[in-house]
Amino acid sequence: xxxxxxxxVAFVPVLLALLVAAFSLQDRPRAVGTTLVPxxxxxVRAQQTLDDLVARYERRxxxxxxxxxMASEVARxxxxxxxxxxxxxRYQADTIDGRRTLVDVVATRPGAPGPPLxxxxxxxxxxxxxxxELSATAxxxxxxxxxxxxxxxxxxxxxSTSGGSGGFAGARxxxxxxxxxxxxxxxxxxxxxxxxxxPFVVGxxxxxxxxxLQLLRTVQNAVRAEVxxxxxxxxxxxxxxxxxVPVTVGEQGAFLRAGQPAxxxxxxxxxxxxxxxxxxxxxxxxxxxxxxxxxxALDDFxxxxxxxxxxxxxxxxxLPEWAVRLLVGTLLLPVLxxxxxxxxxxxxxxxxVLRWAAWTxxxxxxxxxxxxxxVLLALVGLIAVAPGGPIPAVALRLGAGPAGALAAIVxxxxxxxxxxxxALLRVVAGGGHPDTPGxxxxxxxxxxxxxxxxxxxxxxxxxxxxxxxxLWLWTSSPDLRLPRPAGLALVxxxxxxxxxxxxxxxxxxxxDVPHSVWFWTILVAGGHxxxxxWVLWSLFWGCxxxxxxxxxxxxxxxxEGPQDVTVRGPVSYAGPGSLGxxxxxxRR
Length: 588
Known about the structure:
Blueprint: H1 4-9, H2 12-24, E1 26-27, H3 43-56, H4 65-81, E2 85-95, E3 98-109, E4 112-122, H5 131-147, E5 154-161, H6 169-178, E6 184-188, E7 201-202, H7 213-226, H8 236-244, H9 252-257, E8 262-265, H10 281-299, E9 312-314, E10 317-319, H11 321-348, H12 354-362, H13 365-380, H14 400-428, H15 437-457, H16 459-475, H17 484-493, H18 496-509, H19 513-525, H20 531-553, H21 583-587
Parallel strand pairs: 4-5, 4-6, 6-8
Antiparallel strand pairs: 1-10, 2-3, 3-5, 7-8, 9-10
Helix pairs in contact: 2-11, 3-5, 3-10, 4-5, 5-10, 7-10, 8-16, 8-18, 11-15, 11-16, 12-14, 12-15, 12-20, 13-14, 13-19, 13-20, 15-16, 15-20, 16-17, 16-20, 17-20
């Protein structure tokens, strides 16, 4: 049914897209520098502040009495040094301990007109002590003290949030309150931790894209100057995988998702440190000076307010997001052209296709049921911990409750496959086995529609499904003579890019396989993953199951035996004249 020549010709636009992408490469924007030396940051004073806060507020679970008391203490210290307004924002939010009333402290030192610079640090923690996490709050108070001396001319807002131990409720709340006002958001992580995990500057988002490149490079240059080491950075493959499934366990992700230009500065990278992680005064001083150098640099720069971008950095060059979208979009064309041509051939032979499209979509029903059931469990409280944001590994716990919830979700999935799908098939698709040409064409075209939906939402995510799109079209075709094990192996091999994302995220977040499964379950149940995303990915996995079934059940072509001679004339003669007069004889 498939025409290989037509399929090959449809790759011509891909070559043109590659040419356009090559000419679209741009230089990276320059980092913003400063001539001021950030010696005003007093590491000894910041260490004393940290020691005092840890001694008085050791257990700081989000929304607890200790967390609220520490919020009042931070507000008191900021009022003592910030010549401006200090507010406390109270709100209800989901945390690692369920629904709680949280308090954020917001201090604004007024300055020159224009969008403010924002410094953020969370103060709560999942474990006792957590000195490394609290070093961010000590650095924030020290930076606020320096800002009061008038060296910085711009308006600066200092925010102490709660909920940063998991879900990032405080960051999401303050990002909502900021609206579009911030020029740059500097999120302080474990700036005093002794452990080193690169990159020290993180710009991943919980939405599409990543932090503006100029802001990223500005913070990286500051770290390079003050810490004296390379801050590190992701390679192109890592960028692609992270932007394909945009999730991060840093607070900067919540601000970027809201459209604010934000980066995380932390000595432990994206991950949160362990509760007993030690703190170094030298490290606190070095990263504190790095943060102050960033503020000095941005104080004289007025064009830092840029939205998150989905551009790709390749060997010092920037590939724009529109070029990536164009390239991935052209990779969808060969499957569309070959599939539509095969559909026309199939319809001319009166082979059914529509009911096999319904059969393909029905395989997604168990996945959709599992996702909907997870959301319902969170709504009724049977999944007690399901905040609206990711939970770092140090606060993610598996126990009887999570195990029971996962078992219930798996049971719903099995029931959806054993009961719901067959009942649905009897209504919309009738009987039959997927060994007809129409079944293979339906799988290919439905998969194309799903991947096209992913492409509209996120071209990086669609690129992960492109190998499956092309391979499944051919493994489902009756023209391709493959042994069943080989066909099934190709179907599964096409899923490797998608599985690679899960492995990469698990490694970046410090999660093993069971914790990774629970991590993603909470993201779906808590509403962090948009409905459209898990619907499209459920449809994709349904197409994967359908492609595997077609590859296994596809009718193997029979060997053709000797064919009888069908030409007219004597058995011993089949030459000119056997089918009638030849042109030369007719002239006579």
